């Protein structure tokens, strides 16, 4: 019989990466689930109290629609089968029904900065990891192997306290070949692109007026284009840009990666979009120094999904050290 694998999805970035990995494992019976939790968090998500997270109804439905569109087998909550392997893009929450399974954790993108909440969550087990955001990625230790973007990220995760023996540098499927975005039909070229954040939607303070003014200053009178975060309040964000940066173009849809490819400069915060800018050797303004960003940038090996699939096979066979 085929081994069964469950791929736990989430955001569209997470979901598409899970799909790419699964495609490299055709010998498995592959099942997919939108992200889920149990206990209090699961109840809160079902009650509509976590709409700003990947457990929210809207994001779960978006993931489900993607899975249906691609005719993939869905097992919401991973309840239909006993799985030989579970592949997930986050361990901030580890549902009880997968804790005894063989798990491969895959880095999904940029990790957030370490705040006081990170140190609390790392040092006190009773404090949930999710309270510190993606800064605590990898700290669960619940997985057999952790596939990461680069040697720089390997060093960073070890510094955070992740077991070095569990880390494998594979790159990430959506970020391992950024040069492919250079071939596109986006109509503008040579501009400054500002990618906004969904901080306010996740209850993090942001002075949007100050951010817009900084973008104008960096653009130096050149063309400035704003690309809104997919989870952002489009109406509010557009009104703010029209007020403080009149005449600038605003996009709420479209391929951000292609917009970055055509830009001369990228302005972003702690967003995975900066990896694309860095890989394409754009001038990037973010919360990291240029040296640190270059060190963290995912390897451009054009084979991340295949490499992760190879790790999955070893883990499923119970031989992760081979």
TrEMBL record:
Gene3D superfamilies found in the cross-reference section:
3.40.50.12580
The name of this protein is: UDP-N-acetylglucosamine 2-epimerase domain-containing protein
């Amino acid at each position: 019989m085929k081994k069964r694998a469950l791929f736990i999805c989430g955001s569209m970035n997470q979901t598409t990466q899970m799909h790419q990995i699964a495609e490299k494992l055709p010998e498995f019976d592959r099942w997919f689930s939108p992200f889920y939790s149990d206990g209090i968090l699961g109840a809160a998500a079902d009650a509509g109290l976590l709409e700003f997270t990947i457990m929210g109804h809207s994001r779960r439905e978006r993931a489900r629609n993607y899975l249906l569109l691609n005719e993939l087998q869905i097992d919401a909550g991973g309840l239909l089968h006993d799985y030989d392997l579970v592949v997930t893009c986050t361990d901030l929450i580890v549902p009880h029904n997968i804790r005894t399974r063989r798990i491969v954790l895959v880095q999904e993108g940029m990790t957030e900065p370490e705040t006081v909440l990170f140190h609390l969550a790392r040092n006190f087990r009773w404090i949930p990891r999710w309270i510190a955001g993606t800064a605590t990625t990898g700290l669960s230790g619940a997985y057999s192997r952790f596939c990461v973007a680069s040697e720089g990220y390997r060093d960073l995760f070890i510094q955070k306290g992740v077991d070095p023996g569990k880390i494998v540098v594979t790159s990430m499927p959506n970020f391992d070949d950024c040069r492919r975005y250079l071939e596109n039909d986006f109509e503008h070229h040579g501009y400054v692109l500002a990618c906004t954040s969904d901080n306010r939607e996740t209850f993090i303070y942001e002075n949007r007026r100050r951010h817009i003014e900084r973008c104008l200053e960096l653009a130096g009178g050149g063309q400035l284009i704003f690309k809104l975060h997919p989870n952002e309040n489009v109406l509010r964000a557009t009104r703010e840009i029209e007020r403080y940066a009149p005449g600038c173009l605003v996009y709420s849809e479209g391929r951000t990666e292609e917009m970055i490819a055509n830009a001369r400069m990228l302005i972003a915060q702690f967003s995975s979009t900066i990896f694309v800018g860095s890989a394409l050797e754009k001038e990037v303004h973010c919360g990291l120094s240029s040296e640190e960003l270059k060190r963290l940038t995912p390897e451009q090996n054009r084979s991340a999904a295949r490499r992760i699939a190879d790790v999955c096979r070893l883990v499923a066979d119970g031989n992760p050290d081979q």
